[in-house]
């Protein structure tokens, strides 16, 4: 078990390093020049060249990359080209808002998805099954920005129950969290339903029923616990995507967060901010999925037994 954890940690480190290289290469190759947004049309070529030298963007690729990695190792993500603000404090300042949105969205997706998925499998062929599958199809099919606009029209414009913009208080969190969460719920419904149906047909479930164990206990303890592995994987992936893909939803609901920060930085060609935010979210994505992988053994005893057996064989 310990060796698997070490291997998983090393593979996560490799992914993080690869993400660093990939992010820097992509941002470096983006068209445009940061000086275009910092100087007006009257700027002379000499002024542009001087500013490019001050910013360091006229240096060769390997020099910029080496300096950037060296700064990363010291905890320095660089400074914004627009206002000189350090990137890392800027990220930490806006991260709590995005984290709240991602956590609330993941919770909504998990609760709705697992509940409907289980009910769909238990009542296969009934109206609950049909309802759950329709909700799942809706969540998968509808773009996030369109779902957000619909929620604003219904609950903010017409019913006036909840605010549609801002990031202050739990009221402003409800609509964007549901807009993101309903998409994740659509995937989880299908996964849990299919996993439950496969688990129900397993020999040990048949044995439990033959022994007279109640159907409720069979379904909601034994079958559900083993069917949660695919759902847990999806929740981990969705959590990372929610952190990394908050640009659209934060723009629709005018929420301040790292999604808005990277969006504004891209428009201004503020490369250090873009690099810092993308690499920061890449690290979070890897860490979330690492925790999900390590949690498998706590949910499914078969994973622990397999790992222990492999350890004895070695």
Low-confidence runs: 307-314
Classify the secondary structure makeup into a structural class.
Answer: mainly alpha
Shape: elongated
Helix content: over 70%
Order of helices and strands: HHHHHHHHHHHHH
Number of helices: 13
Biggest sheet: strands, sense, closure?
none
How many beta-strand elements?
0
If you compute it from the alpha carbons, what radius of gyration comes out, rounded to the nearest whole angstrom? Answer: 24 Å
Mean pLDDT: 77
Descriptive account of the structure:
The chain has 314 residues and is mostly helical. It has helices at 2-29, 45-55, 61-73, 87-122, 127-141, 144-158, 171-200, 203-210, 215-244, 247-252, 258-267, 271-299, 301-313. α4 (87-122) packs across α7 and α5 (127-141) packs across α7 (171-200). The longest helix is centred in the first third of the chain and has 36 residues, at 87-122. The relative contact order is 0.14. It is found in: Cell membrane. It comes from Paenibacillus hodogayensis.
Summarize this entry quickly.
With 314 residues, the protein is mainly alpha-helical. It has 13 helices and no strands.
